[in-house]
Queue: 3 jobs
Job 1
Amino acid sequence: MSSQNIKMAIADMFEGLSRSNFENFCDELLHRKEGPRVTRIRVEGKSRLEITNVLVSTFTETGAVEVAEEILRGIDCNEEADQLVRNTTGKH
């Protein structure tokens, strides 16, 4: 899958999250123990599209999907995590 399609899938997933879940996602992104770490200035007050770009530029396309899935499951957004995986891998 091309990076543009992965970015679109991640951005679409963010659009489906409630404001509260999006804020929880950003908070969890900041507090991940594994590297590379994302700095607060790159996350706070950013739009959903900007966070998509942060994920892809920090973790690469494949890594961005894996990190997003991990965080989504950690904040009990399992349906959104499943949808993201389906949209980026073609697995149904």
Job 2
Amino acid sequence: MGCAGSRDKVDETSKKIRKPKAWKHSEAITREQLTQMREEFWDTAPHYGGTKEIWDALRAAAEADLTLAQAIVDSAGVIVQNPDLTICYDERGAKYELPKYVLSEPTNLIRDN
């Protein structure tokens, strides 16, 4: 009995999404800096191609917990290339690349006390 088919039957285009592996920013940053980087990315992302609807869905997924994120990408028809959402496609083949900093926090985030 092989492992390959024993999981729930999942559409070929959909992968179980997960948070990116732990990563470190080039320098320690504060939560405010991280938030600003994220805002700048989401403001400019639609200019790199693809549709606003998919970018909006990816932003909602990036800011949601994994179960909700999975539901969002599935219902938006997003084709997940990398399970951590760093590379996705829409049904027309447009590529969407998300930097890790919009998907999770770096290990060297400066925590405010």
Job 3
Amino acid sequence: MRRLLARRMKFHLFGAFFVSLGCAALYKFGIAEPRKRAYAEFYKNYDPMKDFETMKAAGVFECAPPK
């Protein structure tokens, strides 16, 4: 029973470290990178003036009434 706490803590510390590395890698490659690609693809063809005119025509803005 000597050094039982130290031995188990070392095991759990390494285990927690590798699990957290795995979760970080899964988040980066499973969520963050696809999200960055989706934003880049969206803004590649995005025309803010066209979007503004569409919202203006729909009456979204009080300062710019629809024509």
